[in-house]
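wait is this the right file?? whatever heres the structure
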């Protein structure tokens, strides 16, 4: 048979299969069948999501939705038995009679096997999470509302910290961004109810602490994406599921009232969260929900940063050590409101709004010791970042005949401004000093030429920097999908189609960007009134006195007034100021159009989920090119030319998932998926941005030629239910990644930015990642008496990766993943009393790649311990006490090996206490 004949034969066969699949969807339902629908609740009336409902004697099986609802179509007429399974509850058998062309509705109430399932605490949430995970088609980890209720200061990142395969990165003492299966935050998508969320920082590292957690019902981490999910999650997808009034059959009231105490700062801070909702009308078909939160706290932290230079063949000669004491005051307000309306049983309309306002006051005092240049710098850095986030969602779901259709639209906006910002640097020159590197994290310096560092008159002004870079980002999305379930030769089958369009606009301007120096007539000395004595007796206790701040610093308020009123006294440093102002004025637009088709087919205990997603991306950017010329050693700006860039590309992302449940306790999954990750908008901008506050100061260069990373992913997992409330699971995965993006650092030696580190995002030559995840959750209720309250939550992740970086021949891992992560949580929960002790241990992980091994940057291994205590009842509420970072573990980064630290930061212990109800 010729090739053309064989091809026509195969196409004809494929067409027959497609028509066979679609025909039942296009034909009216058989008169010999009917529908069965209903809800599954607990004895208290709470909806049970993730319960497995099966029509005994048929192949019909479904998992309940978030309101406990289920529906079966095409059920043969007659009397049937509905069998319901839900971990932590007894099995239920409910008879139902089906009439031709009619619907039978049933309400099923399950009885708990455990007394603690009906009390407050993590155990109830644990049952919900386990059941949702087990009933899902793909590999998913769920953080319940009860677990979210334990977070401090409303930070979602705290709840993700101990999930298998997750690392949450800390910034300024806050758990902010999530690494999934070793893939850095930019390789993972973050959504709200499945819709994209904007981020004002110019990257795709969505800050988890910006979203008010009181508005959430749960958080879902999906590690194997189906075609109906956005394709830009190589590591996975993190979905924030919001609360609605329809989540509860009755009125909703919850609150959290308490405070925090930070070891560095030693103040009592305030926190308040409130949730109020209700369902109205005779049919309770209109609902509203309001959430509000307020946090105000003060914290401090100590840091020690080293920078090295190469002398001869030694790349680790200490060039500078910057020690600093930073105070941070924060006020955050979060609001959420949503309404829902159900005109009939098949239609739901809704609208949601979320708003967050975060205002901070940062005051940092630092001393930089420079042994190679015989200088001691004194630095005051003050900034007031103000971040405002808002998101609006509207949509509806309805049933058109046998098709369930979902139409949604969202708009999110993030704004960042700096009402005040200034850095003042003064210097004492000709200070001969000898560094003692016996403890390299905390170098000790001895002055060898008798210079009195306590003499304020020896200071000279280096510069005053004022940089205000207001930034905003807007993202609008429209999403439509429709799904139909039917029977294919007696086998349950479904089809789902959808399309989405998202547009994003990011822009930054620089109204104030200036570096000032004193003119020649005023450069001899600094007026003592501009200096303020600062006592820091409790600075960096871990250094045992080795790290030392000078006892005085530039006074921010007085310098600000002096700059504002000092016409003729100060000179604007050029071309630095003009370059910085022009380079920080940019914008970028992005448009993504997507469509998908997927289907499911149930064959006995096996479910197949397959399909493909198509995504087309357009982006365009604008920035400024600054042209300079140098005459007789003086550099000046000769012109500023607008630069433009654009790119367009398409990705087709097929996937196939298999879910197999040979026996009731065991669920097995396997999948092949493809994914992609777009470069961050800020990385594509054809400009350079300066950050003089870092040590060493850094210039970040955009790269509009970046390509999206792509990946092929293989996953397999098995989960076995243990008793009434427990599960053991094992997952293995492999990811082959092409063109992933990483940060490349080089030290500039010439030009206006000599001495700066240049950080540039570039595409790699590819890499791979593979790993194993083990998880064991168990309530030991089989033990007698009071011991039945004991339990354990544990997981271990092993990730091995290999990456190919341009210009490097060594075997290096991907940036981000720790090879080993161990989480252990022991808990006791009985009769309203709950005690939890949490321990996490992480191995070293690569954070940035340099030009050589000596310049590669790593996070050091760390160990964290947290404690949680609560007591109360579901009706009255509970009191709680959380202790975070019990051992005051620092965050440490190093280059080359651990004997060459570059950053050591101590955040101290934190207490969180109060009373809560329903959170």
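ok assuming it is, sequence goes like this
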């Amino acid at each position: 048979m010729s090739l053309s004949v064989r091809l026509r034969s195969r196409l004809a066969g494929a067409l027959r299969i497609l028509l066979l699949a679609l025909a039942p969807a296009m034909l009216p339902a058989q008169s010999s069948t009917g529908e069965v629908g209903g809800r599954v609740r607990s004895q208290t009336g709470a909806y049970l999501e993730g319960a497995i409902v099966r029509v005994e004697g048929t192949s019909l099986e479904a998992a309940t939705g978030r309101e406990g609802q289920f529906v079966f179509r095409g059920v043969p007429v007659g009397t049937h038995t509905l069998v319901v399974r839900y971990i932590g509850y007894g099995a239920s058998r409910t008879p139902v009679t089906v009439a031709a062309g009619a619907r039978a509705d049933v309400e099923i109430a399950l009885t708990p096997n455990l007394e603690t399932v009906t009390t407050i605490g993590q155990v109830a949430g644990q049952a919900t999470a386990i059941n949702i995970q087990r009933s899902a088609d793909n590999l998913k980890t769920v953080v319940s509302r009860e677990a979210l209720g334990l977070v401090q200061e409303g930070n979602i990142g705290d709840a993700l910290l101990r999930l298998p395969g997750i690392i949450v990165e800390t910034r300024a003492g806050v758990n902010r961004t999530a690494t999934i299966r070793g893939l850095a935050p930019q390789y993972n998508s973050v959504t709200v109810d499945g819709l994209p969320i904007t981020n004002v920082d110019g990257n795709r590292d969505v800050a988890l602490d910006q979203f008010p957690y009181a508005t959430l019902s749960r958080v879902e981490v999906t590690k194997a994406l189906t075609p109906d999910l956005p394709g830009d999650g190589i590591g996975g997808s993190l979905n924030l599921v919001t609360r609605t009034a329809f989540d509860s059959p009755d009125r909703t009231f919850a609150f959290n009232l308490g405070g925090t105490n930070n070891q560095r700062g030693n103040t009592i801070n305030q926190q308040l969260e409130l949730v109020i909702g209700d369902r109205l009308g005779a049919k309770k078909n209109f609902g509203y929900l309001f959430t509000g939160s307020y946090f105000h706290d003060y914290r401090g932290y100590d840091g020690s940063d080293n920078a090295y230079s190469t002398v001869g063949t030694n790349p680790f000669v200490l060039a500078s050590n910057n020690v600093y004491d930073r105070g941070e005051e924060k006020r955050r307000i979060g609001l959420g409101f949503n309404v829902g309306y159900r005109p009939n049983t098949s239609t739901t309309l809704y609208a949601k709004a979320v708003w967050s306002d975060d205002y901070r006051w940062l005051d940092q005092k630092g001393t930089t010791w420079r042994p190679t240049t015989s200088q001691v710098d004194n630095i005051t850095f003050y900034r007031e970042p103000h971040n405002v986030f808002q998101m609006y969602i509207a949509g509806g779901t309805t049933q058109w005949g046998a098709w369930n259709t979902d139409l949604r639209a969202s708009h999110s906006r993030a704004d960042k401004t700096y009402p005040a910002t200034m850095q003042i640097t003064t210097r004492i020159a000709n200070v001969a000093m000898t560094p003692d590197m016996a403890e390299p994290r905390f170098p000790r310096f001895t002055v060898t030429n008798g210079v009195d560092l306590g003499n304020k008159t020896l200071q000279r002004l280096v510069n005053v920097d004022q940089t205000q870079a207001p930034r905003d980002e807007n993202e609008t999305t429209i999403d439509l999908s429709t799904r139909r379930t039917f029977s294919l030769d007696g086998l349950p089958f479904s089809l789902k189609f959808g399309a989405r369009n998202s547009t994003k606009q990011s822009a930054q301007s620089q109204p104030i960007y200036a570096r000032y120096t004193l003119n020649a007539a005023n450069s001899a000395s600094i007026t003592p009134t501009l200096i303020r004595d600062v006592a820091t007796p409790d600075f960096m206790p871990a250094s045992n006195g080795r790290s030392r701040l000078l006892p005085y610093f530039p006074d921010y308020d007085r310098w600000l007034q002096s700059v504002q009123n000092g016409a003729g006294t100060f000179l604007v440093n050029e071309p630095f100021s003009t370059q910085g102002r022009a380079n920080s004025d940019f914008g970028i637009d992005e448009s993504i159009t997507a469509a998908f088709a997927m289907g499911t087919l149930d064959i006995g205990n096996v479910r197949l989920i397959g399909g493909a997603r198509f995504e087309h991306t357009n982006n365009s950017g604008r920035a400024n090119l600054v042209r300079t010329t140098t005459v007789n050693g003086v550099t000046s700006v000769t012109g500023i030319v607008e630069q433009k860039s654009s790119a367009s590309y398409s990705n087709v992302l097929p996937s196939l998932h298999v879910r197999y449940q040979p026996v009731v306790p065991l669920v097995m999954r396997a999948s092949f998926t493809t994914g992609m990750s777009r470069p961050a908008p800020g990385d594509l901008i054809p400009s350079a941005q300066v950050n003089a506050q870092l040590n060493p100061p850094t210039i970040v260069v955009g790269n509009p030629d970046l390509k999206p990373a792509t990946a092929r992913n293989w996953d397999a997992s098995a989960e076995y239910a243990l008793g009434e409330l427990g599960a053991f699971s094992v997952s293995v995965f492999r990811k082959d990644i092409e063109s992933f993006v990483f940060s490349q650092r080089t030290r500039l030696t010439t030009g206006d930015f000599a001495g700066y580190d240049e950080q540039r995002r570039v595409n790699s030559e590819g890499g791979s990642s593979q790993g194993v995840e083990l998880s064991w959750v168990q309530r030991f209720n089989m033990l007698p008496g009071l011991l039945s309250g004991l339990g354990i939550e544990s997981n271990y992740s092993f990730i091995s990766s290999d990456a190919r970086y341009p210009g490097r021949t060594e075997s290096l891992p991907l940036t981000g993943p720790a090879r080993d992560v161990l989480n252990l949580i022991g808990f006791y929960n009985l009769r309203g009393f709950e005690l939890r002790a949490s321990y996490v241990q992480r191995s070293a992980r690569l954070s940035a790649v340099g030009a050589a091994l000596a310049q590669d940057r790593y996070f050091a291994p760390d160990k964290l311990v947290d404690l949680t205590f609560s007591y109360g009842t579901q009706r009255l509420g509970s009191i709680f006490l959380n202790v975070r970072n019990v051992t005051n573990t620092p965050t440490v980064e190093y280059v080359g090996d651990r004997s060459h630290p570059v950053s050591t930061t101590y955040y101290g212990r934190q207490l969180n206490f109060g009373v809560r109800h329903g959170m």
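The two ends are 69 Å apart (CA to CA). so i think its the right one actually
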